[in-house]
Specification:
2 domains; 18 strands; 6 helices; Rieske Iron-sulfur Protein; 7-stranded antiparallel beta sheet; 4-stranded antiparallel beta sheet; binds FE2/S2 (inorganic) cluster; binds fe (ii) ion; Naphthalene 1,2-dioxygenase Alpha Subunit, Chain A, domain 1
C-alpha cells in the first residue's frame, strides 16, 4: 500500500493527513542543477534534483533495485543530471527510468516512483495522489511584472492543511482573534472544481512597528487550489499598495505541516500614507515589503496556538457570522479518498 492511503492524522482529524493535490516542495532557487536534496514530504521520504534539461524530479528516496536510500546524507549523488545510487551505482534520469548500471543492461521495469512537479512563480510543487494518478488540474501562475521580489518564511505547525485554509473562510475569527475591524464579504463565493474563490474586506486600522496607527480599507481576494495552495491579493487604499501573499501548507509526517508564507508588493499611485507618495516608487516598495511581511507573519502566528491545540468539530454549531465554512468543507471532500468522505458526513451534507 502506498503511504498515506486512508491513514489518519493520529486520531486528531477524521480524514487523511495526506490529501490529493499540489503541495509545495522547495523554493526553485534552492534547487540549482546538480544539487540533491532529501526530506519528509507527504508522509514519504523523498529526494529531488534538477536535471540538465532544467526539470526538477521529486522521487521516492529508496532505490527500486535493492532499496538503498538515495539521499545525499546516505551517499546519493547527481552526475550529468542523473541520480546515482550509492549501493550498486544504478543511474536514474528525471523521468525515474533506470538508464545505466555499472554491470548490465538496465531492467526497463526498474523505475523510481516520481511525483509530477511544476515550477510556478519561483516555487516548486509536487503532485500527490494516494494512488499515484496523474494530475487533472494545475495551479495558477501570476504575472510578476511590476512587483517586488518575494519574501518568504517557513513555519512548522502541528495541524492539518484543511484547518489552515479554513482559517481564511472563518471571517468571525478575523475580528476576535486578529483584531480586524469591519470584517465582511464584498462579493460571492465561487467554487469551480479544484478552485475555491472568496473574498473579504476590512475597514479598520493597522499598527505597524515604529509607525502610528493608520486607517485601513482593505479588499482581499482569495484563491484556494486544493489544500496546499492559498493565494491572497489585497488592495489597501490606505497603505497605497497591492500585495500578494502565498500561503502554502505541506503535510510532512502526518502530524506536522510546513507552512510557507510569502509576500510581494506593488505600490499604487495616489492614496497611501501621507508623505509616502513623495518617495520614489521603488524605494516606497522596498520600505513597504518588510512591513507587509511583518504584518502577515504576526497575524498568522496568532493562529498557531489555536491550530495546535484545537479539536476538529465535524458537527460545529455555527451561526450566521461564520460565513462559508460548511461550503468550504464540502469543497475539500474532492481531495480525500471516497471512504474518508463517507465517514465525514457533515462536510458532504
Ligand atoms: S540498491 Fe540502488 S543500485 Fe542497488
Ligand atoms: Fe487566522
Amino acid at each position: 500500500m502506498i503511504d498515506g492511503v486512508g491513514s489518519r492524522a493520529k486520531g486528531r482529524f477524521p480524514f487523511t493527513p495526506f490529501p490529493r493535490g499540489w503541495f509545495f516542495f522547495e523554493l526553485a532557487r534552492n534547487l540549482p542543477t546538480g544539487r540533491l536534496v532529501s526530506r519528509q514530504w507527504m508522509g514519504e521520504s523523498v529526494v529531488a534534483w534538477r536535471g540538465e534539461d532544467g526539470n526538477v524530479c521529486i522521487a521516492n528516496a529508496f532505490c527500486p533495485h535493492l532499496g538503498a536510500k538515495l539521499a545525499p546524507e546516505t551517499g546519493g549523488t547527481v552526475r550529468d543530471g542523473n541520480l546515482v545510487c550509492p549501493f550498486h551505482g544504478f543511474t536514474y534520469d528525471t523521468s525515474g527510468a533506470c538508464v545505466a548500471t555499472p554491470t548490465a543492461e538496465p531492467n526497463p521495469a526498474c523505475r523510481l516512483r516520481v511525483y509530477p512537479s511544476e515550477e510556478i512563480n519561483g516555487f516548486v510543487f509536487g503532485y500527490y495522489d494516494e494512488r499515484g494518478r496523474e494530475p487533472e488540474w494545475h495551479l495558477p501562475t501570476m504575472d510578476e511584472t511590476g512587483w517586488t521580489k518575494t519574501l518568504t518564511h517557513v513555519y512548522s505547525v502541528r495541524t492539518h492543511p484543511q484547518e489552515t485554509s479554513e482559517n481564511v473562510i472563518d471571517l468571525s475569527h478575523l475580528s476576535f482573534l486578529h483584531g480586524f475591524e469591519g470584517v465582511g464579504h464584498s462579493g460571492n463565493v465561487e467554487v469551480d472544481g479544484p478552485c475555491f474563490k472568496t473574498d473579504f474586506r476590512v475597514d479598520g486600522s493597522y499598527k505597524f512597528p515604529l509607525l502610528k496607527r493608520i486607517g485601513t480599507e482593505l479588499d482581499a481576494e482569495v484563491q484556494i487550489w486544493g489544500l496546499g495552495f492559498l493565494f491572497v491579493e489585497t488592495v489597501s487604499k490606505s497603505l497605497g499598495a497591492r500585495t500578494w501573499n502565498w500561503f502554502l501548507a505541506t503535510p510532512v509526517d502526518g502530524d506536522k505541516v510546513d507552512i510557507l508564507v510569502s509576500a510581494k508588493v506593488q505600490a499604487l499611485d495616489g492614496g497611501g500614507i501621507r508623505g509616502l507618495n513623495l518617495v520614489p516608487r521603488g524605494l516606497r516598495e522596498k520600505m513597504m515589503l518588510p512591513l507587509v511581511m511583518y504584518e502577515f507573519k504576526k497575524n498568522i502566528e496568532n493562529d498557531f496556538m489555536i491550530w495546535e491545540n484545537k479539536a476538529y468539530r465535524p458537527y460545529p454549531f455555527l451561526n450566521e457570522a461564520d460565513g462559508e465554512i460548511l461550503n468550504f468543507r464540502r469543497y475539500c471532500t474532492q481531495f480525500y479518498p471516497e471512504s474518508v468522505n463517507r465517514s465525514v458526513s457533515p462536510a458532504t451534507a
